[in-house]
Amino acid sequence: MKYEKYKSSLPYSYTLGITLTIELLKKHPEDVLDIYYHSSFNGEGKDIVDSICRKIGIEPIDNDKIFNIFASKENVYCIGVFKKFDSTVEKDANHIVLVNPSNAGNLGTIIRTSCGFNLDNLVIIKPAVDIFDPKTIRASMGAIFNINFSLFDSFEDYAKDNNHHFYPFMLKAKAKLKDTKFVSPFSLIFGNEATGLPDSFLEYDSVIIPHAKTIDSLNLPIAVSIAIYSATTNDF
Questions:
Q1: Model confidence pLDDT, tens digit, residues 37-71
Q2: Which domains does the chain have, with CATH numbers?
Q3: In whole angstroms, what is the distance from residue 193 CA to residue 61 CA?
Q4: For position 69, what pLDDT does the model report?
Q5: What are 212-221's contacts with CB under 8 Å, separation 24+?
Q6: Mapping DSSP to helix (H, G, I), strand (E, B) and coil, where does residue 207 land?
Q7: Tell me: the pLDDT tens digits for 194-203?
């Protein structure tokens, strides 16, 4: 099959690197289309990929040309091509909610952190960066293949579909993080990297992460990480 350089309209995406490809093969073997090796690759993890490929009936292909299309500027020796898959969050689980996230690297980092604390249900409010963008996948270090996710056209559509306790994180919030007791099932809600959440979210149990006045705000992935740790600290 002939593949193109990634764009969101394509029905497939790809993993750039051996670690991500192993996660893809382990978690979504039914969605794998092709596995490619660079001719110079004989490194760690190749035996794992070969073993899984034999089990699912896929023959890895040596093809240096495809690396020029997918990873011309990357130090990559293994690529997995997969068809985009459907996913849905567990309705009664705790959720991370991102309202209009715009940066693929940030989204991937948040996905990885969420998985690290067993918060593996992610809600994305559109418009938003593409969750299947290879940059997102790479920043997640393959954690994207371990989460459930749902996309909604608006927060109102999401809100009417569940009975969660909403905790929007905002600079104008009512309560400090250290004083907040999270009640499950909860939704930890975060705004866009540039604009945050609109004031309409103050009607919920809004939370602020206090920080020194020498900065305007925390980086989004860091704020999410602090919030996740605080909300799940009794689980570890």
A1: 999 888 889 999 999 999 999 999 999 999 988 88
A2: 12-83 (3.30.1330.30), 95-235 (3.40.1280.10)
A3: 40
A4: 87
A5: 217/171, 219/106, 220/101, 220/103, 220/106, 220/110, 220/190, 220/193, 221/106, 221/109, 221/110, 221/113
A6: strand
A7: 999 999 999 9
Reference 18, options 50, 42, 46, 58; nearest CA is 46
For residue range 80-130, what is the model confidence (pLDDT) as tens digits?
999 999 999 999 999 999 999 999 999 999 999 999 999 999 999 999 999
Q: What angle (nearest 5°) sits at the alpha carbon of residue 29, between those of residues 36 and 8? A: 70
Q: Tokens standing for 202?
A: 């103050």
Q: How many CB atoms are located within 10 Å of the residue 189 CB?
A: 27
- Mean pLDDT, the chain, integer: 94
pLDDT of residue 190: 98
Q: What is the distance between the terminal CA atoms of the chain, rounded to a whole angstrom? A: 46
pLDDT at 74: 72
Q: Measure CA 70 to chain center.
A: 20
Residue ranges with strand state E in the chain: 12-16, 32-37, 61-62, 78-83, 95-99, 121-125, 148-152, 165-168, 175-176, 186-190, 207-208
Q: Is 142 exposed, middle or buried (0-12, 13-18, 19+ CB in 10 A)?
A: buried
**What is the β-pairing status of strands 121-125 and 95-99?**
parallel
Residue written as token pair 């764009």: 7
User: In one letter, which amino acid is 111?
Assistant: I
Burial (CB count <10 Å: 0-12, 13-18, 19+), residue 72: exposed
Both structure tokens of 148: 């459930």
Which whole number is the average pLDDT over 142-146?
97
